[in-house]
Amino acid sequence: MTFMLLAAWRLNPHIPGLKGWTLAYGCSLLVCLNLLLRNSGHEWLMVIMTQMSSFLLAWFNLAAARRYLGRRSLPVLAGVACAVIVLACALYFTLLQVNQGARFLLQSYTAGVLFVMAAGQMATGGVREYPARYLFAAISGSHGLFLLLRPWLFRLGEHGMFDRHGTLVVSHLAVVESIIAVVMLGFSVVMLANEQVTQALKHMADRDSLTGAYNRRAFMAMLEKATLYAPRLGFPVSVLLIDLDHFKRINDTWGHQRGDDALRHVVGVAQDCLREGDILGRLGGEEFAIALPNANQHEAEQIASRLRQAIAAQPLQYTGTILPLTTSIGVAAWRPPESPDGLLHRADEAMYQAKRQGRNCVVLAPQAD
Questions:
Q1: pLDDT for 208-245, tens place per residue?
Q2: Which DSSP state fits 274?
Q3: Could you tell me the pTM of the whole model?
Q4: Is 70 left (phi over 0), alpha (psi -120 to 50) or beta?
Q5: Which of 53, 76, 99, 260 has the most C-beta neighbours closer than 10 Å?
Q6: Is 235 strand, coil or helix?
Q7: Which helix (H) or strand (E) is 99 found in, with range?
Q8: Measured in Å, how far apart are the chain's first and last C-alpha atoms?
Q9: 3-state helix, strand, coil in the chain (%, to 5)
């Protein structure tokens, strides 16, 4: 499993968290090697290697889960501090007060808590949208809980609660659980990597590569879905069609690089002005459209006016130069059984009327017949 993840990471270094999981499985490999070689070296050295490998395994697993989700990395100092504490306790119960049971508790509880924390981090986003995350969370959480219960199972085995060979039974159970957890976690990591690649491909298919807004195909599909559900759920739908004024002059005067910067700037300003659930798409060139679910024509006009003013008040700035930007916006409210293309056409006509009126203004489209 370690070599499989190493190969996957080398082939896909851009997938977040994959490096951390590879390191985690490397540490798991060291745990196995330490157990195999524990009788061939000094006990204190074998204890240190086993405890540190087990701790780093669980720590890298948690760090990889956070990295995969794009969350803030775990503090390095916190990891070093925890490792020092684990190391100090392991040495104390090996050299000063020999207590194998205490070392076992230390290893089980430390790794168990970290595995449960990783499960809690990963269980987010919804099962239908991200099934691989919840599979990983279930496996990591189950393994963490087993590690937390493992010392008590051994204690029950020692008292013959299973049979006269209770300790041996629990040992076999622990080995089988570890094998299953290792294999299932490895495959769930591969599924997470596949989920990441699928999301990236979907993003590339649905998003405009320059601005990050939805492309025309994705926008029209989402607008169609909004108009399909609007009558059933009883909410209005409106559309804004936005055109960047004098965009050709920007390209001819300052170059296409500044034109691209202007488009990205307008998208950034627009996203700050929109509500959660509003859909911003680039239809082509300097034309953008915004679908406004649950907004009637009056509310859409207010949003358009706020957007127009924000763009005019925030010019594009670079190397000491200020490039003022304005937009012409057409507003249209959907009326069933109008098609999405018809709704967009009316908003387009209103936008061209705004240009004829002198640009940098908002014009409402007449109501559909």
A1: 989 999 999 999 999 999 999 888 888 999 999 999 99
A2: S
A3: 0.71
A4: left
A5: 53
A6: coil
A7: none
A8: 64
A9: 65, 10, 20
